[in-house]
Amino acid sequence: MQGEVRQALARPNPQVELTAENIGGSGQHDGVDQSESTLLFAQRLELGGKRRRRGEVAARALHGETARLRERESQAVASAATLFFELLGAQAEADLAAETAAHAAAAVGDLRRRRTAGAASAVDVERARLLTARADIDAAQRHAEVAIARQRLAATWGGRGQDIDRVRGSLQPLPALPSPQALEARLAASPAMMTAAAQSARMRAELDLQRAQAVPDIVVGGGVRYLAGPEDVAFVAETGVEVPLFDRRRGAIEAAQWRTRRSERDAAATAASVRDTVGRARLEMEAADAQIEQLQARHLPVARASLAELERGYGLGTATSFDLLEARRTLLDLRIQHVRALVAYHRAAIAIEGVLGWPMQEMPASDAPPQGWPAHEMPVAQPQGWPVHEIPAARAAHEGDATCD
Questions:
Q1: How far, rounded to the nearest angstrom, does the alpha carbon of residue 3 sit from its chain's CA centroid?
Q2: Which of 35, 100, 140, 181 is deepest in the core (most CB within 10 A)?
Q3: SS3 state at 329
């Protein structure tokens, strides 16, 4: 693209013209003895600022390509980061489902021993087996979802899902919820709006160039004429200008005006789309934040306390194994809901970063960041993953491990 700018600023090449007259005529002009020749050098002088306008058009096009490249890069990184966190969440869900399935299988074994001892019936064992089958099916389904998530992530660098074992990272702590004022301040510098602004500037430069093209250029020249006879020599000078009688570039100017107006409308539509996307993503962050807070502060502690009480009751004979299985199932559902809320929060945050092309960590928060889950109860392994704006879109993202509580 730099070459196009240099080319646009290039001046017109000079012209060299050699003419010969009075050759091969009749009478005294027979042959070449009475011929006259002229060697002329001519240069077209561009008026109306055409050269400068061409340079502006090329420079605006270069700026637009740079902005468009930044937009594509931002989208690619955001897509890879989203897929990374979705795989991280899918792994956590699969681990939780596998843990629940293991508890269900253990409950079946315990009931069989109790039946042998006469403390449980065959019906109890069959009911437990049905619950175990449900847990196994759920675990298999979540394992398949992990495989799909791996393939989607690997596709970002042209790899295969089986190339990924487990990804390493943490769903907490969460990035702070940015304030609306901070997001509004970043809108104008977003890659999409920069691309639209560059396109509008290019169309305005194109319009200025078409207006400049309507100004006729001047051609000036000079040279030497070799006259017939005793080798007489004379100097020649010429000048010329195009008369804009039929073509005044009106059609080209009208077309450039229409393209300029269209680019301005497109820029306004892009601004509205960016503002809408960022606004909706922030609302999704707020909703996920509220859900995370509610789960961490109320529902998960209550479910854990209920399970612990039932485990004590089961040891004392006041609770059945089915009570334990249902309590573990309820806790599983809540923990999976918690993981999905965390992934939804990250997904919305990445969407904002992808649109604005700005790391969330550098945006002023509207309030204190959400509190993290206690380290010993983290849904995903404690080792930290990449910050949202630094997650690579290539295979370096799939090393390591991720476990759940």
A1: 27
A2: 100
A3: helix
pLDDT tens digits, 155-211: 988 888 888 888 888 898 898 888 898 898 888 889 999 999 999 999 999 999 999
Strand ordering across the sheet containing 15-21: 15-21, 36-45, 218-226, 233-241
Burial class (CB in 10 A: 0-12, 13-18, 19+), 197: buried
Residue type for position 379:
P
Alpha-carbon distance 326 to 22, whole Å? 113
- The residues facing 41 across adjacent strands are 16, 222
User: Residue 404: its pLDDT value, please?
Assistant: 38
The residue whose two tokens read 């175990």 is 132
Q: Which amino acid is at 38?
A: T
**CATH 3.40.390.10 matches 57-199+263-397:** no
Structure confidence at residue 32 as a pLDDT band (50, 70, 90): low
Amino acid at 288: A
47 in Cβ contact with 242 (< 8 Å): no
Q: Which residues contact 261 (CB under 8 A, 6 or more apart)?
A: none
